[in-house]
Amino acid sequence: MEVNEDASSVILPAVFLVYQTISDFREKLKHPVMSVSYKEVSLYDAPGIAFYPGKARLLSCKHHYYDHIPPLINPGQPGDIECTTQRINYTDPFTNQTMKYALVVQGPRDVKKKELVFLQFHLNGTDQDFSAIDYLLFSSFQEFINSPEKAEFMKDCESSYSSWKFSGGFRTWVKMSLVKTKEEDGSETVEFKQETSVVNYIDQRTQPRSDQLFFVVFEWKDPFIQTVQDIITANPWNMIALLCGIFLALFKAADFAKLSVKWMIKIRKRHLKRSRQVMNHIN
């Protein structure tokens, strides 16, 4: 009886531990852990900035460094366009009927030198109460240039990326950061995060005007690319090793029970033998 109780005291906890181990492994497979890592770079792949200016016109576009923008000269007048630009027309990916006009500009690259792109737009007049220009960011201007189907490329970008606005009469400073997400199938998606600051533009032109000036700056926030991916913490080898240890303990318990039974049988036989000897001696 004592042997059975000893064996049960080992087997029951072992069975429970096996069940708990398998349950934990399955739960970890269902709920992976999000992992976030950062990679430092000195040069980014220049992003593409697609503007949808409507009736507005690009007056100037320049690259500057170390967060320094020189004072404006003749604001509202055409200036130097020192950026790489490309104009493209394509059909709206959501309606497939409306034609859209986009001005695609190469964004900044050198984050160590705090490279920025400063653009100035001019809208001659509008009958709307509020004026703004839409834009979207995509990961690689070079991919756009190399694409043989630029219209389809832009339709895919508009379907995949969010769009933003900047208003007339202000200087909007956009600081970008890049987030890459690795999916379960091995593919990778890219998302832009933005921090914007808006400063009022003080129009010092002498004559009263009804036109609107738009100023926007694009710069990288920091040299770190954020990578997000789901990691499965369940390790099958750890589970196998634990189960092997549990089964080994069960086998040891079974051997112990077997030896205990043999020992008790042997003691019982000795006891019976001595009892016979005593009875024979008495007789």
Give a written overview of the molecule.
With 283 residues, the chain is of the alpha+beta class. It is built from four helices and twelve strands. The two termini are 35 Å apart.
Compact summary:
With 283 residues, this protein is of the alpha+beta class. 33% of the residues lie in helices and 35% in strands.
What is the gyration radius calculated from CA atoms?
Answer: 37 Å
Work out the helicity level.
Answer: 25-40%
Shape call: rod-shaped
How far the N terminus sits from the C terminus, by CA atoms, comes to 35 Å
Largest β sheet strand count, sense and barrel closure:
7 strands, mixed
SSE inventory with pairings:
Blueprint: H1 2-30, E1 33-40, E2 48-52, E3 57-64, E4 85-91, E5 99-106, E6 116-123, E7 132-138, H2 141-146, H3 150-160, E8 163-167, E9 170-182, E10 188-200, E11 212-220, E12 224-231, H4 236-282
Parallel strand pairs: 9-11, 9-12
Antiparallel strand pairs: 1-12, 2-5, 2-7, 3-6, 4-5, 6-11, 7-8, 9-10
